[in-house]
From TrEMBL:
Pfam families: Acetyltransf_1. It comes from Microbacterium schleiferi. Residues 4-138 form the N-acetyltransferase domain. InterPro entries: Acetyltransferase_Butenolide, Acyl_CoA_acyltransferase, GNAT_dom. Gene3D superfamilies: 3.40.630.30. This is GNAT family N-acetyltransferase.
Amino acid sequence: MPAYEFSADPRRVDRVTVHRWLSELSYWARGRSREQQDAAIEGSRNYGVYDRDTGEQVGYARIVTDGATFAWLCDVFVSPDARGQGIGKALMAGIVADVEPLGVRRVMLATADAHGLYAQFGFEGLRAAEKYMVLGAH
């Protein structure tokens, strides 16, 4: 099993690979243009997990935040070829450690299928979902 490393360095993000993953393989960003993805990367804190031997990116996520009170975790993706090796856990552990010093009061996310992963890091369902609203929900 290869060794992996977490990085919060946005310069390491393989934009071509991340765009392919999200625009072709994800259920939430299918069809996203490269221009949209590049803009999203530029406006976010970006994270990756990389194979230490090859340098190949095997995981990605980003946080949209004001850096003080609120953060939104999104675009979490692990390469299909590398799933089941703890990469999602490594990605989440690194993100939580990176965001914690900011002191944000709330980090939110939306998921259709990874509740178990996020629960391991303290995420839970909304307690007062009726308070929350969304514009542009599809």
